[in-house]
């Protein structure tokens, strides 16, 4: 009899649980479908609804963390939240406008998985990856084409990234913190900008060394405009451009003068006074044109000495190329180079 009573009580208890489960069937089913609904929202880009589901699951976890079913639901929702995090960061690696950037960062902040400093670093890393992909797609066979396309890409896209960062994050703290204080979060952006400027200067130096022909003046103008446009956001690097172009102009001038001296030596090896008709009086009847008043021209008598005339032409070509991009700081170097060349010739 007692066994029957116990069995009856167990059956009654089970029946009450089944009745309660049946009455709450809709609510239980909604809870069990949360992982599937979360995955659907994430994969279709409904991040607002996904964040609401995440917040609801967190409340369930705090109330019923000991229930195995709830633990399984929490784990599946966390996996979907990780997928959502990856998707949002991936969006920052594309050509995304400022409003979309603001929306993505807003979602990341509401997910509450990254600190403010980590969020800044993730943003800069993602945008930097996108910028590098654009730079990597620029053809590298022609140095002039490569550097001009790089200047254009950096000027447009890097300026957009700086604008987006400053619209999303506030950097009101000083870059250099007080003694004993933690580094300011604004130093993250400052360091990144310095890195990008340094990378551009290295690319510019490499392409200048490869040679851009006689278009040095055009390239200098583009670089100066690039630096001027960045002065509006406090990143004016035009002062670092002058030494690069100064060295390239000096090297080009020195190479041209050296070639003129070498050519003069070769011609002098085969030159004799017999081949100079003016010296022997053979061209005495040929009129020599006179220079116009107020003009600067080499003396026509050099025509009687072809090696000297060719050497002068080589120097004039070097000066004409230098004229296109002639920093005033090169005056002493050019004078020394020319003095050395004239010494070798004489």
TrEMBL record:
It comes from the Eukaryota. Transmembrane segments: none annotated. Its main location: Golgi. GO terms for cellular component: Golgi membrane; Golgi transport complex. GO terms for biological process: intra-Golgi vesicle-mediated transport; protein transport. Coiled coil: none annotated. InterPro entries: COG8, Cullin_repeat-like_dom_sf. It is found in: Golgi apparatus membrane. It is a peripheral membrane protein. Keywords: Golgi apparatus, Membrane, Protein transport, Transport. It holds the Pfam family Dor1. Belongs to the COG8 family. PANTHER family: CONSERVED OLIGOMERIC GOLGI COMPLEX COMPONENT 8, CONSERVED OLIGOMERIC GOLGI COMPLEX SUBUNIT 8. This is Conserved oligomeric Golgi complex subunit 8. It comes from Ploceus nigricollis. The gene is Cog8.
């Amino acid at each position: 009899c007692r066994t029957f009573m116990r069995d009856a009580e167990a059956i009654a208890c089970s029946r009450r649980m089944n009745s309660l489960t049946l009455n709450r069937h809709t609510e239980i089913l909604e809870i069990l479908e949360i992982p599937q609904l979360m995955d659907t929202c994430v994969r279709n880009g409904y991040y607002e609804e996904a964040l609401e589901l995440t917040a609801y699951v967190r409340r369930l976890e705090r109330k019923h963390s000991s229930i195995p079913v709830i633990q399984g639901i929490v784990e599946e929702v966390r996996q979907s939240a990780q997928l959502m995090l990856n998707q949002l960061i991936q969006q920052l690696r594309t050509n995304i406008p400022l409003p979309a950037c603001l929306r993505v960062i807003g979602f990341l902040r509401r997910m509450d998985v990254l600190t403010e400093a980590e969020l800044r670093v993730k943003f800069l890393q993602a945008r930097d990856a996108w910028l590098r992909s654009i730079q990597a797609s620029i053809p590298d066979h022609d140095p002039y084409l490569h550097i001009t396309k790089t200047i254009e890409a950096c000027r447009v896209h890097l300026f957009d990234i700086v604008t987006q960062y400053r619209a999303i994050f506030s950097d009101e703290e000083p870059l250099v913190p007080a003694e004993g204080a933690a580094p300011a979060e604004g130093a993250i952006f400052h360091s990144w900008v310095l890195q990008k400027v340094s990378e551009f200067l290295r690319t510019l130096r490499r392409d200048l060394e490869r040679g851009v022909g006689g278009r040095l003046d055009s390239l200098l103008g583009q670089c100066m405009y690039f630096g001027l446009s960045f002065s509006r956001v406090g990143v004016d690097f035009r002062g670092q451009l002058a030494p690069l172009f100064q060295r390239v102009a000096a090297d080009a001038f020195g190479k041209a003068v050296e070639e003129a001296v070498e050519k003069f030596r070769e011609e002098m090896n085969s030159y004799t006074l017999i081949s100079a008709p003016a010296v022997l009086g053979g061209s005495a009847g040929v009129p020599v044109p006179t220079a116009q008043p107020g003009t600067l021209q080499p003396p026509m008598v050099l025509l009687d000495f072809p090696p000297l005339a060719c050497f002068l032409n080589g120097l004039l070509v070097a000066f004409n190329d230098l004229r296109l991009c002639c920093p005033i700081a090169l005056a002493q170097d050019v004078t020394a180079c020319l003095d050395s060349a004239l010494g070798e010739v004489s």
